[in-house]
Amino acid sequence: MPEPLPHPYPPEVVENYLNTVGHVVVVVLDEQINISACNGAFSRLMSGEVDFSGRPVLDYLLLETPGDHPFSDPLAGSGRRLTFIAPDQTLFSLDCAVYRTSSGYLLLGGQPLVAKDESVEKMTRMSNDLLNVTRELSAKNRALEEARAQIKVLSGIVPICSFCKQIRDDAGYWSNLETFVSEHSEAMFSHGVCPTCMEEHYGKT
Predict the structure, then answer these.
(1) Residue 127 to residues 89, 120, 137: CA-CA distances in angstroms?
(2) Is pLDDT above 60 for 36?
(3) 168 falls within a domain
(4) Where is mean pLDDT largest: 47-51, 127-131, 189-193?
(5) pLDDT by residue (tens digit) across 181-198?
(6) Do 74 and 157 fall into the same domain?
(7) pTM here?
(8) Domain coverage including residue 162
(9) Which of 50, 97, 123, 180 could be joined to 167 by an S-S link, Cβ 3.0–4.6 Å?
(10) Same domain, 20 and 101
């Protein structure tokens, strides 16, 4: 934090802070806690293009109790953490020293705890992408396991009677072909009569 400003904070001192301090957020508030002036560090964090002069600072503060006055009876240079909401809904927190002036308040903010830094945004996007890929992979794995559980495959040597074509299972019981295949696969049967059997049994083709 910078050295405390001399009391009663002459306008030229405040103006010097606004024009020269780039690594510290400086915000001047009037008695109604509207923003009278701010420096470039604050404007950059707040998206830069907006003129905040005359706007209530409460419009850009995230308070635990809505309508609360965050600067009531501040001690000279008392520290507090303030969370701001930029016009694009980005949040950033500053460790601020609050000074009471003859015409309002002076906020001096330290380095932001969370800022709109490109590397932070890139890491956040990468983390979100990785999370989405992980979710998709988990969903595909579940679908694969469910499909695998439903698949029945006939394999190995199937003992079948040379005459009646019944099949012997592992327990030694004999069953007809349709029953065996239905129980050991997803296949279903539809019955008909081939031309040879039609001739043999009905005397016609």
Answers:
(1) 20, 10, 15
(2) yes
(3) yes
(4) 189-193
(5) 777 777 777 778 888 888
(6) no
(7) 0.45
(8) 148-191
(9) 180
(10) yes
Q: Residue 78: which H helix or E strand, with range?
A: strand 78-85
Q: Which residue has the higher pLDDT, 1 or 34?
A: 34
Amino acid 43: pLDDT: 84
Q: Which two tokens stand for residue 123?
A: 């890491």
Is 116's pLDDT higher than 60? no
Q: How many domains does the chain have?
A: 2
CATH number at residue 41: 3.30.450.20
Instruction: Specify if 125 maps to a domain.
Output: no
Both 94 and 155 in one domain: the answer is no
User: Look-up: residue for tokens 């020293």?
Assistant: 97
Nearest to 110 by CA among 27, 39, 43, 25: 25
Alpha helices, DSSP H only, in the chain? 11-20, 40-45, 118-150, 177-184, 195-202
Structure tokens at 126: 């990468």
Spatial CB neighbours of 186, under 8 Å, sequence gap ≥ 6: 150, 151, 152
User: How is residue 25 written in tokens?
Assistant: 């957020």
